[in-house]
């Protein structure tokens, strides 16, 4: 029996993307063609073609443990040429605003050794594009005071909860890795306290927590609506940025 050519291997993809929440890559996935959705183990996969480039997105849920497992599942199932960690981040540098893009040149995580990423990508602050450190933490960083403290300690531009784990896995397995995040919040105000209990470990909205928040503090509804609007705008900006990124990475192979 003749083996199929690589281009005919439907299981393979050119670029695999790990994100925590469906909303983060929803706009980008909408721009793909022939999208198929399936569940593998604990994770939801969405695959399609973007300008002829085979893309698979896996939704890991929040946190490093799930992100690493999702990266493993992605590589095992689809053998991507590149693995990306994409999604939302919180700006911790004063210069960054909601909607700005952060391309990581190093990944930081507490006392773990930094992971340096060897590539050249120009910053363009006028367009809201920044290159620098991305810090991964165990919990959501909610207050402006916490963000400023982390920025002073690490020199990072933004904070997320998954990228270091994905980068570490890729380094161990010798997979090419790239991390790009969009800032869904900045240092203009604290996040509402309810955000800490809003999402479960899988990234699904905990509706009981939502109802409880509204019962305890009715004004939280307005805060949550504002966060949702910011997140939707951030997802659109990430999709626009990824348009160029996936084409450049695909060409780089």
Number of distinct helices: 7
Secondary-structure element order, as H and E? EHEEEHEEEEHEHEHHH
Give the C-alpha Rg.
Answer: 18 Å
- CATH topology term: Rossmann fold
Organism: Schlesneria paludicola
GO molecular function: adenosylhomocysteine nucleosidase activity; methylthioadenosine nucleosidase activity
Protein name: 5'-methylthioadenosine nucleosidase
GO cellular component, one term: cytosol
Structure explained in plain terms:
This protein is α/β, with parallel strands linked by helices. The protein has one domain: Nucleoside phosphorylase domain (Rossmann fold, 3-Layer(aba) Sandwich). The protein is 37% helix and 29% strand. The protein is built from seven helices and ten strands. The protein has a five-stranded mixed β-barrel, surrounded by four helices. A hairpin with a 2-residue loop joins strand 2 and strand 3. It is globular, with a radius of gyration of 18 Å. It starts with 14 loop residues before the first strand and ends with a helix. The N terminus is likely disordered.
Which features characterize this protein?
253 residues; alpha/beta; Rossmann fold; five-stranded mixed β-barrel; 7 helices; 10 strands; disordered N terminus
Short description:
This is 5'-methylthioadenosine nucleosidase. The protein has 253 residues and is α/β, with parallel strands linked by helices. The chain is built from seven helices and ten strands.
């Amino acid at each position: 029996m003749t083996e199929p050519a690589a281009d005919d291997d439907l299981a393979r993809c050119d670029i695999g993307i790990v994100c925590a929440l469906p909303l983060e890559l929803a706009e980008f996935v909408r721009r793909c063609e022939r999208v198929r959705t399936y569940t593998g183990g604990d994770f939801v996969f969405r695959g399609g073609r973007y300008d002829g480039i085979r893309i698979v997105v896996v939704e890991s849920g929040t946190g490093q443990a799930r992100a690493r497992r999702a990266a493993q599942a992605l590589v095992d199932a689809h053998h991507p040429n590149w693995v990306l960690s994409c999604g939302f981040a919180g700006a911790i540098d004063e210069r960054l605003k909601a909607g700005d893009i952060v391309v990581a040149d190093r990944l930081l995580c507490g006392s773990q050794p930094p992971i340096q990423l060897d590539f050249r990508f120009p910053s363009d602050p006028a367009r809201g594009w920044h290159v620098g450190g991305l810090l991964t933490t165990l919990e959501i960083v909610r207050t402006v005071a916490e963000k400023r403290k982390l920025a002073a300690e690490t020199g990072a531009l933004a904070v997320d909860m998954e990228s270091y784990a994905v980068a570490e896995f890729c380094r161990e397995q010798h997979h090419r890795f790239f991390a790009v995040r969009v800032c869904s919040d900045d240092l203009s105000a604290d996040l509402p306290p309810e955000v800490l209990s809003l999402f479960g470990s899988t990234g699904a909205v905990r509706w009981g927590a939502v109802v409880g928040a509204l019962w305890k503090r009715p004004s939280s509804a307005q805060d949550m609506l504002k966060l949702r609007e910011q997140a939707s705008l951030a997802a659109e900006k990430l999709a626009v940025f990824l348009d160029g990124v996936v084409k450049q990475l695909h060409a780089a192979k």
